[in-house]
Design goal:
By secondary structure, this protein is an alpha/beta fold. Helices cover 33% and strands 16% of the residues. Helix 1 runs antiparallel to helix 2, helix 1 packs antiparallel against helix 8 and helix 2 packs across helix 9. It is globular, with a radius of gyration of 23 Å.
């Protein structure tokens, strides 16, 4: 008697674990291994600083702002929320030249300052929206409209998975809360569901809903799976062109394989006490974010393509509408040591050259005061840094005006950033497309956005 592949696996009595074998028999998913040219990087870690870190207090020193703090700003500026004044707010923090490169960075970032020569700081970023949700969606998907695939999804679509036992795209968020965009930031959009981000927990059970409950017997579980396989086959016969079911089946198969692989990858007990201390796991202030950074390194070692790490979501986070000084001190205490430790650790293990680390929020802040001691949202300028993956270290690219309000020199858009990251992964942003409703869609929508690879950030120039 002939059985379909899935029927045979289910009838063997191996249950969910047996289903895992079926994916190993499948051909590579569409897009897998489709790099357009040799890649500089194999993996990406996005350290997402939700809330909008203040560029003029962290990475973009403004002597004129310091000099004229308390005066009326001589520029016409956008004000997003109430409570803004026209009074310039000087930074309460000092900047220092760091490393051999002399990159100026805030005193709030001593650990990142110690690795300044590994950092590619971009001071001329700009984006398209002042609201958190839209800004976050844009930073991750290229536009602020809902429903588009994220950067991590496009990377998975273009390159496939490097480890068939783990998702190609993993999300490590603060277990206490989602940010305002939630899962929209790691959505596959209209790509297959298999390209969406998979949440792993950095606290408690690593992967939710992965284990069969203890009160369910093996026989009962096998019967459930036999029935599910039969229903799936019947549905596929009725709707042969429906891709969602196939994606769901493959996700279940992946879940079976993850029972062992994810547990192994997320087992921090195998890390030395020294390593855990380097990431700040011994300090309650940095332990949560530090754990996620350490897990990100382990996932890179396990072959995960894209890891999305969130900063803590408690309190105002980086969203300093008031109490700028204590809030930034708290957030830098949470993130500075762990972010630097991740880059140091990757470098020590020979992984930094093949891993792109991105530290970024969704937008920046205004140079004027809000609520007396805070700053409002600013889409016209923000700073971020990149490390590894063929990006130049020890540089500060671009320039904002004398107050840090608007990018004015060597401006870099979100689409430019995406095009550059894809390039380092061996993907041409103009060729990585999928037909959606009769239109060839891409991450950068290059025709409309004019996106370009920012060659000045790269160690080797792009061939024309």
């Amino acid at each position: 008697m002939n059985f379909s592949r899935r029927e045979m696996l289910c009838r063997t009595g191996l249950g969910l674990g047996g289903l895992a074998l079926s994916s190993l028999l499948q051909a590579e998913e569409k897009g897998s291994g489709a790099a357009h040219f040799p890649a500089k990087a194999k993996s990406v870690i996005l350290l997402f600083q939700s809330g909008g870190p203040s560029q003029m207090d962290l990475f973009d020193p403004k002597p004129e702002l310091q000099k004229r703090g308390g005066e009326k700003i001589p520029l016409a500026i956008d004000k997003f929320l109430p409570g803004n004044s026209d009074t310039l707010l000087a930074s309460p923090f000092k900047f220092h030249k760091r490393g051999k490169s002399g990159t100026e960075m805030s005193e709030l970032l001593p650990h990142l300052g110690n690795i300044a020569d590994d950092l590619c700081v971009v001071r001329s970023m700009h984006t398209g929206h002042d609201n958190h949700t839209e800004g976050t969606i844009m930073l991750n998907t290229g536009k602020f409209t809902i429903g588009r695939p994220s950067l991590g999804s496009w990377v998975g679509y273009g390159l496939g998975s490097a480890n068939k036992n783990l998702p190609g795209y993993v999300v490590l968020r603060d277990p206490a809360a989602y940010d305002s965009a939630g899962s929209l930031a790691w959505s596959p959009g209209w790509l297959s569901a298999m390209h969406g981000g998979t949440e792993f927990n950095s606290k408690g059970i690593p992967v939710p809903n992965l284990r069969t409950p203890g009160n369910v017997t093996a026989d009962a579980r096998r019967e459930d799976l036999d029935l599910l396989a039969a229903l799936n086959d019947k549905h596929k016969q009725q709707f042969p062109k429906e891709a969602e079911l196939e994606a769901r089946i493959r996700n279940y198969e992946l879940a079976a394989r993850m029972q062992t692989a994810a547990t192994e990858a997320l087992d921090l007990a195998k890390e030395t006490a020294e390593t855990r201390k380097q990431y700040g796991l011994d300090d309650p202030a940095s332990a949560g974010y530090g754990t996620r950074c350490l897990l990100a390194r382990r996932l890179v070692e396990s072959g995960v393509r894209f890891i999305h790490v969130y900063s803590d979501q408690t309190g105002q986070g980086w969203d300093s509408h008031s109490k700028l000084k204590p809030d930034l001190e708290k957030m830098c205490k949470q993130t500075d040591q762990s972010s630097a430790a991740l880059i140091r650790d990757l470098k020590a293990r020979g992984l930094l050259d093949s891993t792109i680390v991105i530290w970024a929020g969704e937008f920046g802040r205004l140079p004027v005061s809000q609520n007396a001691d805070g700053r409002d949202h600013n889409r016209h300028a923000f700073s971020l840094f990149l490390a590894g993956g063929g990006f130049k270290g020890g540089i500060a690219h671009g320039k904002t005006d004398e107050f840090g309000y608007k990018s004015i020199e060597n401006r870099v858009s979100v689409a430019d950033l995406h095009a550059t990251i894809l390039h380092q992964m061996g993907l041409d942003h103009t060729k990585l497309t999928v037909n959606h409703h009769g239109r060839d869609e891409s991450l950068t929508d290059s025709t409309a956005s004019g996106a370009k690879v920012v060659t000045e950030l790269l160690m080797t120039s792009v061939k024309k």
